[in-house]
Amino acid sequence: MNFTQSFSYMFKDGSWFYKVFVGGLFVALCATTLGIPVIVGYQVKHVRGMIAREEDIMPDWKNITGMFRDGIAVLCALAIYLAVLASATLVAGAAFSLTRLGVSIGIVMFFWMPLVVIQYAKRPTLFACFALVTLTSPVAKSPSAFAATIGISCAVMTAVFALGWMSLIIGWPFVIFWGITVHSHILGQLARLQ
To answer: Which residues contact 170 (CB under 8 A, 6 or more apart)?
Structure first.
């Protein structure tokens, strides 16, 4: 896996500025929750495109309703996993607390979401997101690549959210979207290993 390529591949695309600009607008729409499914769907489209072909390009902003539909499916799967994890915590005897809920959300978002996005990109059905054997195959087949993917993606997203405000607040959504494309490219590389 070439992690350094994930930070610069988008600049080889002649329309990268337009794609990042539109993505930044959808990131800004995430405050109203309307942008979240579109951004997640864009990640799925990005990973799907990387699996289908060798060249690394950012997907176009075509078929936004399809991206929205894919994002909703992935978010529904993640909500089900979160409900199962929270229920298991309660059944295990742990008292409900906001801290435990936050930990559960963190586990689902940082460790499980990449697997669900890759699985849904390969097989675009909600039920495919619950095929645990194929869902966890990136971890089983290349655990070091998965660990590196999670570590680098977490570092990038933390840095983007923590330092993105330095881009004069107005540019923060665009910096965040750039981080999302880096994360998506890394997931696409992990998906290609399978």
So the answer is: none
Give the number of domains in the chain. 1
Rounded distance between C-alpha atoms, residue 173 and residue 28, angstroms? 6
Other C-beta atoms lying within 10 Å of the C-beta of residue 144: 8
Rounded average pLDDT per 10-residue block, the chain, 194 residues: 81 84 86 87 90 78 91 90 77 62 71 86 87 83 85 81 65 82 86 78
- Residue 91 tokens read as 């059944």
pTM of the predicted model as reported, rounded to 2 decimal places: 0.85
Q: Which amino acid is at 81?
A: Y
Do residues 137 and 118 make contact, with C-beta atoms less than 8 angstroms apart? no
- Position 69 scores a pLDDT of 93
Instruction: Give the span between the Cα atoms of 54 and 77, in whole angstroms.
Output: 28
Domain that holds residue 53: 4-192
Beta-carbon contacts of residue 116 (< 8 Å; ≥ 6 apart): 74, 77, 78, 81, 129, 135
Q: Measuring CA to CA, which residue among 188, 176, 186, 173 is closest to residue 29?
A: 173
Residue 183: count of CB within 10 angstroms of its CB: 23
